[in-house]
């Protein structure tokens, strides 16, 4: 069950905007939303992130975001 517009039909720009928005609202939903609101937020986040990963399976990985990169900073 999709919450909102099916991510598969969103143009790239809209998908990225939705991803930004869902991440901005996560903490407020976690802290102040009902259990249902948090569940719905989690489902929507998964849907949007899964679609992003489907479209960008070869996305650029920042070496600083890997364990080896983190160890090199220390």
UniProtKB/TrEMBL annotation:
Region (Disordered): 49-74
Top-level taxon of the source organism: Bacteria
The protein, known as: Uncharacterized protein
